[in-house]
Amino acid sequence: MPTFTHFDAAGRAAMVDVSDKDATTRVAVARGRVVMAPATLAKIVEGQHGKGDVLGVARIAGIMAAKRTAELIPLCHPLMLAKVAVELTPAEPDAVEIEATVKLTGQTGVEMEALTAVTVAALTVYDMCKAADRGMRIEAVRLVHKSGGKSGEFSAS
């Protein structure tokens, strides 16, 4: 069984020491979705939403969030990310699919940054559309791929 790593010898929460790890290229991909009323999605797609370009604003929010993950999640390492890409795709009839890809060459992975990017992009869609659709749901935020580092490759089935 894998062990949890964010504990010191005394059992207290601690940032993992990655100083002895080799720097490798690490990539993480996360996905999620925002489910909404079909009419809400139609307004987003048609550019008829009163608050502007919902998908464009959410994409930027996701990128910014990935860059600030260490400020949001306790014990995450501050990282110099090489790439953050966030894509939001309308999925008829009632959802926006979100995918974030994060990459760096370093001593620790970028899974949390990818997951944070998807989550904040989804929250931004929700925030911009909540006045028209309080029943929206953020669903299925998950890691779908990770490569690099000591633990190797992971792909969700």
From TrEMBL:
In terms of Gene3D superfamilies, this protein maps to: Molybdopterin cofactor biosynthesis C (MoaC) domain
The answer to keyword Methyltransferase applying to this record is: no
The reactions it catalyses are: (8S)-3',8-cyclo-7,8-dihydroguanosine 5'-triphosphate = cyclic pyranopterin phosphate + diphosphate
Matching InterPro entries, A to Z? MoaC, MoaC_bact/euk, MoaC_sf, MoCo_biosynth_MoaA/MoaC, Mopterin_CF_biosynth-C_dom
What does this gene product do? Catalyzes the conversion of (8S)-3',8-cyclo-7,8-dihydroguanosine 5'-triphosphate to cyclic pyranopterin monophosphate (cPMP).
Quaternary assembly: Homohexamer; trimer of dimers.
Name the record gives this protein: Cyclic pyranopterin monophosphate synthase
Q: Supply the source organism for this entry.
A: Plastoroseomonas hellenica
What lineage is on file? Bacteria, Pseudomonadati, Pseudomonadota, Alphaproteobacteria, Acetobacterales
